[in-house]
Amino acid sequence: MARANKRVGLAIADSVLGPWRRADEPILPTRPGRFDSFLTSNPAPCVREDGSVLLIYKARHYEGNLHGGMTIGVAYADHYEGLYRVLSDEPVFPPESFHIEDPFIWQTNEGYHLIAKDMEGHLCGEKYGGIFAESPDGLKWSLHGQPQGYSRTVRWDDGTVQTLGNLERPFLLFQNGKPTHLFAAVSDGSDGFKDASDTWNMVIPLKQ
Predict the structure, then answer these.
(1) Closest CA to 151 of 136, 170, 173, 135
(2) 108-132 residue pLDDT tens
C-alpha cells in the first residue's frame, strides 16, 4: 500500500534549515491507464535559465493488482512551483528493454545528459551500474556511444579496489559549470542491500 501511494511532491523554503512549506497535492499524480498509473517517484529536475523545469521521473504502471516494471517519464513546468504536465503518453525509453531507475539529468550546450541505475546490467554491462544517455531536447533519448556512466567498482585512496553491493541515487556536483563529484547511496554487500552490513553516502571526485 505504501508503494502504491508514492507520488512526486514539492516542498519550498528560503533556507535548507527551513521552515519548509509543503504542497498539499502531488505535482505529478498518477494517471489511470498510462505508464505511470501505479506510482511516480525519484524526480530529477533540471531548472533552466528561464526558470522553467524539465523533470525526469520514475514510474510504474498497474498490471492487475500489482505493479509493472520501472519506466522513466518526462514532465515540464514554466516554474518550479508548477503546474507540471507530462510531455508524452509513452515512457522515455521502451520498458521492454530498459529497466532503470534513479535518473539524474543536466543541461549541456548540445542538449541534455542523463545517468541512471541499470537494474539488470543489460545496457551498461554491469548490474546496478549506471547508464549514460543523451538527448537534444529532453524528449528523445538514446544511449551514449559509451553507455556506462559509472561503475560499482571503486578505487579507494589507499589503492584498494572494492565492488560495492549498490551504488545508486547518483547526483553530480557542478562547480563553475563542470561536474566535479558524484554523490551516491552505497552498501558494502554483494547483492544489493540484501546482505549489506553497512550503508553510507559516498562522494567520488571525478577526473577532469
Answers:
(1) 170
(2) 999 999 999 999 888 999 999 999 9
Residue 188: other Cβ atoms inside 10 A: 15
Q: Which three cell numbers stand for residue 40?
A: 511516480
Q: Alpha helices of the chain — where are they, by DSSP H?
A: none
Residue-level pLDDT at 69: 87
Residue 178 to residues 40, 104, 172, Cα–Cα distance (Å): 30, 15, 9
3 state DSSP class of 3: helix
Cell 539529468, residue located: 105
- What pLDDT was estimated at residue 29? 96
Among the listed residues 160, 139, 164, the one whose alpha carbon sits nearest the alpha carbon of residue 89: 139
Residue 184 to residue 166: CA distance in whole angstroms: 9
* Residues contacting residue 156 through CB under 8 Å, at least 6 positions apart: 162
Please write the tens of the pLDDT for every residue from 18-45.
Answer: 999 999 999 999 999 999 999 999 999 9
Percent of the chain whose predicted confidence (pLDDT) is above 70: 100
How far is C-alpha 39 from the geometric centre of its chain's CA atoms? 15
**Which of these, 94, 101, 144, lies nearest to 124 by C-alpha position?**
144
DSSP three-state, residue 96: coil
What is d(CA 90, CA 82) in angstroms, rounded to the nearest whole number?
21
Contact 44, 117 (CB under 8 A): no
pTM for the complete prediction?
0.90
How many DSSP H helices and E strands does the chain contain?
0, 17
